[in-house]
Amino acid sequence: MLTGRVHLSLLMGPAVAVPVPKPVTEALERVEITTAAGERGGFSLTFTFSSDSPLTTLLLLLGQIGPVIRTVLFATVNGIPIPLVDGVVTHHQISPDVQAGKSTLVLTGEDLTAVMDQIDMTGLPYPGLPPFARVNVILAKYAVFGIIPLVVPNIAIDVPIPTNRIPTHRGTDLAYVEQLAEETGYVFYVQAGPVPGASTAYWGPEIKVGVPQPALNVDMDAHSNVETINFRYDGQSATLPVVFIQNELTRAPIPIPIPPGVNPLNPPLGLIPPIPSRVELMNDTANKSPAQAIMLGLARAARTSEAVTATGSLDVLRYGRPLQARSLVGVRGAGTAYDGLYFVKRVTHKLERGAYQQDFTLTRNGLVSTVPKVPA
Fold first, then answer.
1. What's the rounded mean pLDDT across residues 28-50?
2. Are the CB atoms for 20 and 28 separated by under 8 Å?
3. How far apart are CA 296 and CA 155, in angstroms?
4. Domain 2-113 is classified in which CATH homologous superfamily?
């Protein structure tokens, strides 16, 4: 599919994706891909084909092999390949048109976390392994899918003594890894890249620092690169988490409030943060170490302090590159209150022949920019 200076490449196959035949690529009419923080990535491919098309063979594969039809999509923008999705097909739907003699096939799928959610491994023991080591062991078995683990050890490393306690697996690999992340105040996701055919499985704290993407320009005449953008401020969203730790001598719980904006991995992107409107008592932290309890409180404070939300759409050809989720981006021209850096929480790619649009959702934890300028 050629869209001006953007070339979309499609690879599919059982477990290992290979380039699809040219007739299959020509039958591809529409692509929609969603990547979002805190959610599984998903995609939808729409094909139009006749009865003698190679897509009929693909239908047979879908019926026989099921959820291991690997699908890799990447866009080449100005000669640079940018991975968009690496996942598996989970559903397909076909709609024949009797009068036109053609059929429409819609394939929907999820990122490679779908592969991790197939088999219940409850009861598998992990003697002497702290949480991050268990995650590494689990992710190692998915190397065949090109998954590269990126695991950050938790601050308070709890190494269970096998004679006292042996941790055991609960649920599927995905469910257990997500449970370990939640208990530690971390996040877990699988993201396509850094190169086509590979994915990064990240288990660690949600990071909202780094090099920002080129700025989204609003109302700047020829320099404007967004089609629509709207801002919303919710001053009632912020809460003040209170974690509890136990005194080792008296076993009495000690409350520790976690004010917003104190997380070094989630620094304030807005100069005027919202004032917490309510207090949330996190009673389930009393049985954890002080470091674990504080990490859970920091994660909770960061999630509830995202008072500013921006939603909009852009033309990728005009912007110059696809906007990436889970990273920072600058906004210019929206006014003093809303200019500055934002965290890209959600991106939806919409590709058709001759068009590449993106819908986006940005968030940050306050009004007025904390930086004097953003990268152009």
1. 92
2. no
3. 11
4. Trypsin-like serine proteases (2.40.10.10)
pTM: 0.89
Range list for CATH 2.40.10.10 in the chain: 2-113
In angstroms, what is the C-alpha Rg of the chain? 23
For 93, counting Cβ atoms within 10 Å of its Cβ (0-12 exposed, 13-18 middle, 19+ buried), the class is exposed
Residue 121 has, within 13 A of its CA and on its CB side, a CA count of 17
Residue, of 278 and 137, whose pLDDT is higher: 137
Please write the tens of the pLDDT for every residue from 155-185: 767 677 787 888 899 999 999 999 999 888 8
pLDDT tens for 185-239 read 899 999 999 999 999 999 998 888 889 999 999 988 888 999 999 999 998 878 8
pLDDT, mean of residues 39-51: 89
Looking at residue 66, its pLDDT comes to 53
Q: Using CA atoms, how far apart are residues 104 and 89, in angstroms rounded to an integer?
A: 16
| Residue located via tokens 């590494």 | 136
All CATH 3.55.50 domain ranges in the chain, comma separated: 119-204
What tokens were used for 92? 């397909």
Q: Give the CATH architecture of domain 119-204.
A: 3-Layer(bab) Sandwich (3.55)
Structure tokens at 336: 């003093």
